[in-house]
Design goal:
Layout (H helix, E strand, L loop, with lengths): L2 E3 L25 E2 L23 H12 L2 E6 L2 E6 L2 H9 L5 E2 L2 H10 L10 H14 L2 H6 L1 H21 L3 E2 H18 L12 H17 L12 H27 L3 H5 L4 H9 L8 H31 L2 H14 L8 H5 L2 H13 L5 E6 L3 E3 L2 E3 L4 E5 L33 H4 L13 H18 E7 L8 E4 L1 E4 L3 E6 L2
Parallel strand pairs: 1-8, 2-9, 4-10
Antiparallel strand pairs: 3-4, 5-7, 6-14, 7-10, 8-9, 11-14, 12-13
Helix pairs in contact: 3-8, 4-11, 6-7, 6-17, 7-12, 8-9, 8-12, 11-12, 12-15, 12-17, 13-15
Length: about 500
């Protein structure tokens, strides 16, 4: 069965040069992928030599600006459809997992590395079973129960930053925030305190830092050399994956012992125990391997994405001091001592939450997303075959002035009721930092809570003296599965 995904408007997503305007009510003519415009393709390699792996998001965004909202690209022997219309993107995201899936190569790479399938890469019925378990663990009520543990991690980070401020030392922003996210996620996932903030060993973080970039690099490798011989970095990777898997299995054994307490089983206090309880339900179809895969996925995704979102937000707010002032006034008037904060208190920080949404609009950690067609289909007015990958440019309509007035400006108030003229009423359907549809990020509530918690702690206790880039210019964007800022250093001063 073939399906057609048409934008809600009657216009085609893009038209070839010289095409007659489409008449409302008439069916759209169907084009072939090769009929679309796009950058010139070279024999054999296609457009592969025209992209830089760590800047691929900017390469694709540049093509969209030049050739239009639908174009044809080829990387090696693989044809790609590139789209940027947010309505069409949302339609494709909602058609997962029936019509589209994540690219199969990422699943293959992670399996080769020894990482069990988690909900991020699982497909079909396996994904559906895992989703029920993971969504139960990340439900808003369950996330609220994790707050006391998060407050303890935030207090340790405050002490560390106070020491740096007192010594006049600069703080490497991304690595520092990753210390927080590793401690937060590991503590919630394992039910055991992991303290990289107060330790120089950073054992878990060091292993995770080996794994995340390798997934990105191998997913785009032209030759899979590691199947036949391994370089020193590949052998180091194997050791890191094995170490994390052994640790997770050990923590699972400890968790099962704790869950012999009926009261604890009735109200599991951490993600790992909540997943075990859900997996143990009759008919769940889940195994310990599934739990391991999802804990591994949470460690990888929770470490990098939340820290990166925080880094970008702090950078953007430092470039717009009036936003820091307004957010601080909100924090000071709403929150008391850190150890007494509640989820309801943090929920009252409307302006700070607006800062989060605005930074994710301008600097999303995932500026593009890729899905793969499971069957022959029509996207917009373009016919594609099963197996064709569709690159969805998430940061295009979000930076258009006709969608978000003064789109290049960091204006958090556009997300508040006071300034609806600065954003469309459906702004959250244009900016989709957590995706959309059935496969929307299950950890979004936890991520927002962590971001708001660290930002509020920072504003309550410190003045930001500066957030500097290596060359003094604008922050450089580096793509490595997520879009991270390069080399940001923050200087703080304790508030009186």
């Amino acid at each position: 069965m073939k399906m057609s995904f048409l934008p809600p408007s009657d216009r085609p997503a893009s038209q070839p040069p010289g095409a007659m305007p489409h008449q409302p009510g008439m069916p759209l003519p169907v084009r072939r992928l090769r009929d679309l415009p796009g950058p010139r393709q070279w024999p054999i390699v296609g457009n592969a030599l025209q992209v830089q792996l760590d800047k691929v998001h900017q390469n694709v965004e540049g093509w969209v600006k030049h050739y239009g909202p639908m174009l044809h690209v080829r990387l090696g022997g693989f044809p790609l459809l590139v789209i940027s219309d947010h309505e069409l993107i949302a339609t494709l995201l909602r058609d997962r997992p029936e019509g589209f899936r994540r690219p199969s190569r990422m699943q293959e790479i992670m399996s080769e590395m020894g990482i069990q399938d988690g909900v991020f890469v699982a497909e079909g019925e396996h994904w559906a079973r895992q989703r029920r378990m993971v969504m139960a663990s990340f439900a808003p009520g369950q996330v609220r129960a994790y707050l006391p543990a998060l407050l303890g991690v935030a207090a340790r980070l405050r002490t560390r930053w106070a020491r740096a401020a007192g010594l006049g030392q600069s703080i490497e922003l991304q690595p520092e925030l990753m210390r927080f996210t590793v401690d937060a996620i590991a503590g919630l996932a394992f039910g055991t305190e992991v303290n990289t903030i107060e330790s120089d060993e950073d054992v878990i973080q060091r292993h995770l830092d080996q794994i995340f970039p390798t997934i990105w690099r191998r997913s785009h490798a032209i030759v899979r050399y590691w199947k036949w011989f391994k370089l020193p970095r590949d052998r180091a990777l194997d050791r890191s994956v094995k170490a994390v898997n052994v640790a997770i299995r050990g923590f699972m054994g400890d968790a099962r012992l704790r869950l012999q307490d009926p009261a604890r089983r009735a109200a599991p206090p951490n993600l790992l125990e909540a997943m075990i309880v859900a997996a143990d339900e009759p008919g769940s179809g889940m195994s310990d391997d599934d739990v391991v895969g999802n804990v591994f996925t949470m460690l990888l995704a929770g470490e990098d994405t939340t820290a990166t979102s925080l880094s970008w937000m702090i950078y953007l707010m430092s470039r717009n001091p009036h936003t820091l002032q307004r957010a601080r006034q909100e924090v000071d008037s709403t929150l008391g001592d850190l150890q007494n904060w509640t989820a309801d208190d943090l929920g009252k920080l409307d302006y700070l939450e607006a800062c989060i949404h605005e930074s994710m609009r301008i600097k999303p950690v995932g500026p593009f997303n890729v899905v793969q067609a499971l069957k022959d289909t029509v996207v917009g007015d373009v016919r594609i075959r099963a197996g064709t990958s569709v690159v969805m440019v998430m940061r295009h309509d979000t930076l258009r002035d006709d969608t978000f007035p003064q789109a290049d400006c960091f204006m958090p108030e556009r997300w508040l009721d006071e300034a609806t003229q600065l954003a469309p009423h459906h702004a959250k359907r244009v900016s989709m930092p957590f995706g959309a549809g059935p496969r929307i990020c299950p950890g979004r509530y936890l991520a927002l809570l962590e971001i708001k918690l660290v930002a509020a702690m920072l504003l309550q206790h410190f003045d930001i003296t500066s957030v500097d880039t290596p060359d003094g210019g604008e922050a450089d964007e580096h793509m490595a599965l997520t879009m991270v800022p390069v080399g940001l250093k923050m200087r703080l001063k304790l508030r009186a």
